[in-house]
Specification:
This protein is mostly helical. The protein has two domains: about 230 residues, 3-Layer(aba) Sandwich (Rossmann fold), CATH 3.40.50; about 90 residues, Tyrosyl-Transfer RNA Synthetase, CATH 1.10.240. About 55% of the residues lie in helices and about 5% in strands. It has a three-stranded parallel sheet, sandwiched between helices. Strands 4-5 form a two-stranded parallel ribbon. Helix 10 links the parallel strand 4 and strand 5. Helix 9 crosses helix 10 and helix 11 packs antiparallel against helix 14. The chain starts with a helix and ends in a 5-residue tail after the last helix. Bound molecules: adenosine-5'-diphosphate. Adenosine-5'-diphosphate binds next to strand 1 and helix 2.
Length: about 350
């Protein structure tokens, strides 16, 4: 039997569902990363074979200065573990430790076209933000991401809504590869336990929470309690609705969405009613939201600090993750080279 058949499940010609996702070490982990991605990692590690990665190579596309990388990688590792990711249950590793990624990236680049890469929304955004550094790595970001995913022949990818287009591109590259060289890879799909992918909005009423843009609009797990309260109190609101049951403007909708992430049903119901009755006091709402955010974030911050204090443990996690991830990657690359006819003896 071929290697593929050995790992087949009875229904699909691919290994039973494998999960893969990554997070860039470009700054501190925030609420968007948690609700878009990490919360799903924590659940999925109980059910599936999971590969979770610190995407340090991806960070080089926009952050070429590597001076802070070593500490950023450790922080992101610690923050994910503090959120509940268990390196004993999932394979948790650094992208740059898995050299096979670069080989697969090279092969996939031959199947990706300049025109489609240039149309990617994230590429256009980043090229606009950093016109002085529109490098080829930035253009081929979705190709490297595809290599990361399919290197473990994963089909489920827990990510936020901002990654939807990348996943669509990943499926295109996979279909092209399979069509040209044989059915090696399952098609990857973005995944969230809820029906819809999530975008956690920024506190300024526009855009999304993000590691590297607009610090005041993003709640980080590293923020201290007063900073959290301050940021929430500064969230964009207005003087309140003037008609009963009026539709909510986007920035108010965003605040209610943030409440749904951390507040109790009773609290949400009360403020919904107040809004509909035109009696809402946004100062009270933000005070409550601030306290609930503090209660949610501060235990994770404290746990992160404990983990960061134990460097030996973090190095152990990285080494073990690299080994497990490379084992899986090497198996896939043998299949790939064979399918592509690159095995000459
Ligand atoms: P960032 O955009 O903050 O640098 P990454 O690009 O490293 O984050 O993404 C890590 C994961 O977090 C991805 O799955 C991404 O979809 C998710 N993510 C990032 N920001 C948000 C957000 N505001 N809402 C939901 N998910 C998000």
């Amino acid at each position: 039997m071929s290697e593929i058949n050995k790992t087949m499940d009875p229904i699909s010609p691919f290994p039973s569902k494998i999960v893969m996702s990554g997070i860039r070490p470009t700054g501190m982990v925030h609420l968007g990363n948690y609700f878009g991605a990490i919360r799903n990692y924590v659940k999925m590690q109980e059910e599936f074979e999971c590969y979770f990665m610190i995407a340090d190579l991806h960070s080089l596309t926009t952050h070429p200065d590597t001076q802070t990388l070593k500490s950023n990688v450790r922080r992101v590792l610690a923050e994910n573990i503090a959120c509940g990711l268990d390196p004993e249950k999932a394979t948790f590793f650094c992208q740059s430790h898995v050299y096979e990624t670069s080989e697969l990236y090279l092969y996939l680049n031959m199947l990706a076209y300049k025109g489609e890469l240039e149309k990617t929304v994230t590429f256009k955004d980043k090229a606009r933000q950093h016109p002085e550094n529109v490098n080829a790595g930035l253009l081929t970001y979705p190709v490297l991401q595809t290599a990361d995913i399919i290197l473990h022949r994963a089909s489920l990818v827990p990510v936020g809504k901002d990654q939807e287009q990348h996943l669509e591109m990943a499926r295109n590259f996979v279909v092209r590869f399979n069509h040209r060289y044989g059915n090696i890879f399952p098609e990857p799909h973005a995944f969230n336990y809820q029906q819809e992918l999530i975008k956690v909005p920024g506190l300024d009423g526009s855009g999304k929470m993000s590691k590297s843009e607009n610090n005041m609009a993003t709640l980080y797990f590293a923020d201290d309690d007063d900073t959290i309260r301050k940021k929430v109190m500064k969230a964009k609101t207005d003087s309140g609705p003037t008609e009963m049951n009026a539709p909510k403007p986007d920035y108010i909708e965003n605040i209610f969405m943030l409440m749904k992430l951390v507040c109790s049903d009773d609290v949400i119901r009360k403020f919904e009613e107040d809004y509909n009755q035109c009696t809402i006091r946004y100062g009270d709402l933000k005070k409550q939201l601030g306290e609930d955010m503090v209660n949610f974030i501060s235990p994770i911050r404290q746990k992160t600090n404990d983990i960061l204090a134990n460097d030996e443990y973090l190095v152990e996690v990285m080494k073990k993750g690299a080994q497990k991830s490379r084992e899986s990657a090497q198996k896939t690359m043998e299949l790939v080279r064979k399918a592509m006819g690159l095995n000459y003896f």
